[in-house]
Description:
The structure is a single chain. The protein is α/β, with parallel strands linked by helices. Helix content is 23%, strand content 22%. It folds into 3 domains: 149 residues, GTP1/OBG domain (Spo0b-associated Gtp-binding Protein, Chain: A, Distorted Sandwich), CATH 2.70.210; 170 residues, 3-Layer(aba) Sandwich (Rossmann fold), CATH 3.40.50; 75 residues, GMP Synthetase, Chain A, domain 3 (2-Layer Sandwich). The strands form 4 sheets. A 6-stranded mixed sheet has the order 10-11-9-12-13-14, sandwiched between helices. A 5-stranded mixed sheet has the order 3-1-8-5-6, with no helix packed on it. Strands 15-16-17-18 form a 4-stranded mixed sheet.
Amino acid sequence: MFADTAEVMIVAGKGGRGVVSFRHEKYVDKGGPDGGDGGKGGDVIFVADNNVNTLASFRFKPELRAGDGEAGGKRRKHGADGTDKLVKVPVGTAVYRDGCLVTELTTGGQRRVVAFGGAGGFGNAHFKSSTRQTPRVAEVGEKGDSFLAKLELKLVADVGLVGFPNVGKSTFLSVVSNARPEIANYAFTTLTPNLGVADIDGRSLLVADIPGIIEGASRGKGLGLEFLRHIERTSVILHMIDVATEDVVESYRVIRRELVQHSAALVTKPEVIALTKIDTVPESTVKQQLEHLRRVTKSPIYPISAPAHLGILELLRRLAEMVEQQKAKQAPIDKADVSSRVEIKLDSRQLATSWWVSRRDDGSYLVTGKKIERFAERTDFASEFSINRLRDILAKLNIVAELVKQGATGESVIEIAGRRFPLQEQWDNVS
């Protein structure tokens, strides 16, 4: 079963808990803290696989979950990291989160982390200092990233076949490749995209047969937008027109309009026109139709008959040449692009240290900000020692000063990352 869209819940692993432990060994006085850190949660990783060509399997997988990290142990033992979840997806898969693109996998073997596991919590050995010799503080592990992902497949092919239904696209694909699409003499025989590999002069062309387009497809008519997306990643468009069409010019213009209404970028792709089924009409008709088309387009036009193998070799050679030219234009990213990305990362770090305080109607205070929320998520709220550490961090980041400025008192309730606790006017540093 072919499917080019799917929704799946993605859950990365939770980090393991840090441990509060003290070294107890004969003849060793004041052994000190030796609690180990928790392991990192596993990542969810997508891997593009050339042998996978549908998203259908995700319709039976409601959730993709990586393993949780294990807790730390005594003697500074580090907890084991959670097991990564490796997921095979078709080449051309795009991952969306809340309508925004997360990543795309466009080449075979490509790997992308789509959800990162949470960091493991620090054990109490991490918190020993000259002023805190016996810390009783340890962190819980961070939650892993989780979200409802929308997956969308856009086939990656060298050549995309477009045209009205029943113009001979499937027949052409079956003749030039090892693909065996359903073929019949009626419209919409092809209901899902088909892929085939055509070999020409030692070169291979990956050809995608896109289901027939009709006028209004970009607005949802016929098969609508369901398969127009698959044309976006093809290098060259092969526009196929039945030579017996009464008005070949209008037929050509209708398909071009549908392409541009779906995406203006489609009409900038290199195009070749194939005038099909030339063995079914007189030669004079073929010449007349060629003249009509040449008046409205400068794209190369090839009269062909797939069943009779007429004009096929010349067409494939031209397509292979154009595909090679397109691939040669795909230059690698230059150094200027890399440096600009570095600047964006610096901005992201600055943003990570920012925080905001707002007073709520019930008198409590909401503190938000990436860095302080991470600290709160790693705090063990069952331990007063850990809560006091979080209060210390609030003070060091000047958040307490802002809370007091906005009217907070020691009994005011503070909420960070969904956890609520009293601010308190004073507290002792716990050693």
